Request: fold
Amino acid sequence: MPMAVRFSARSFARWTCVAAVAGSLTLLASCSDSSYPSFWTPWFAAVGGSSTNDVYAVGSETIWHYDGRSWMPEHSYGGGFLNGVWAASRNDVYVVWSSGDGGRTGEVLHFDGRDWRRVASAPAALQSVWGTSGSDVYAVGRQETILHYDGSAWSTYSTGRREWLEGIWGSSSHDVFVAGLLDSILHYDGARWTRQYTGAPSLGLWGSSSQDVFAVGGSSITHYDGVRWSPQASGTTNNLFAVWGSSAHDVFAVGANGTILHYDGTGWSAQASGTTSHLWGVWGSSAYDVFAVGQNVILRYDGTRWSPPASVSRSNEVPRGPGSLLRPTASSPSAAP
Reply:
């Protein structure tokens, strides 16, 4: 495996409107219910939202929004890649961006219900964003970058080790986990950062509590029980990029070649995604409303099955294989087989 460095809707409406967005043609949606985007951008990197009727999918240069009826492009931010999204509420949404020059800079964008604007920047690509509230938000990325917003200003943390950080999740402001490409997870207890060794690189994190945390990266899944990290059998050789769950007994992991795994509290099993496109993000509002996004596709799970994917021209697809270890961003080479 190469070590390259990243509603239940049952009917679809055809996409009929073509518009110029940021100087390039993007296929936009008709306004029909139950429609999914099919567009000429290469991929979605992440998905998140505040409710089933307020969901964002980001990637390339466009922020897409789902209002419960249809997906529409909401904002374009050129010159780089949109890598992560987190929403505290409908009027309090954060997105992180990395520049297209190899990820030499990163920015945090914020939506206040009316406009998107830049609220913070970093001297490295930013990969993920997460928070406990609108006044406790973290953004992480390359070169050990950890930014924190306390409701009034952004500050920077240092881990003392220049490393590529990818994912972040926490159970509270005093229990924050950060994933990266080293064989360890960073943990913040509200006062200091410490390192917990997992034995595997990690890209995505999610947990139901401080004693139940999952990390995915490569084809590995590791679990934290509040004391130590232990490997779990993933049953796949494909690289995994993201993980999310509605409870300790309902967890999803997504990855290369349309891989979707589900954990029921005892073990992981594969689910049919209906696509061979790489999937880079997963998030849901409940066990019956889960979105997975990736290489030209958005899928939705209704508690029983994943909806058929909408996709664009196969000419835009990433080559087959286990998939690059990382999501393709401005700061990583394109995915390789």
